[in-house]
Amino acid sequence: xxxxxxxxxxxxxxxxxxxxxxxxxxxxxxxxxxxxxxxxxxxxxxxxxxxxxxxxxxxxxxxxxxxxxxxxxxxxxxxxxxxxxxxxxxxxxxxxxxxxxxxxxxxxxxxxxxxxxxxxxxxx
Length: 124
What we know:
mainly alpha; 2 domains; 73% helix; elongated; TPR-like_helical_dom_sf
């Protein structure tokens, strides 16, 4: 078994990024589990694992990871947007996802965030 070291964790993190890009989210999660086990405070690894869970349609673990990221970084627009998408995909009430979409758009007014927030739609 290879020795666990900070250098190995960086290699595993980068490999997980490549696996996720290559559409192997479950492989990415496996690598990130070890990284997060050694560095539970690593928000970047948790965000990447949340993305991998989402890509693998593991919505509850994705929701938990995105929420944890937001506890640590409440101004992370991407995490708000991704949590909104996760809640939407899980068929949760629209207001749950919309809250996160609106926060994402307020923090970083990217067109995708604004559209998801529904600022261009009327609430009749």
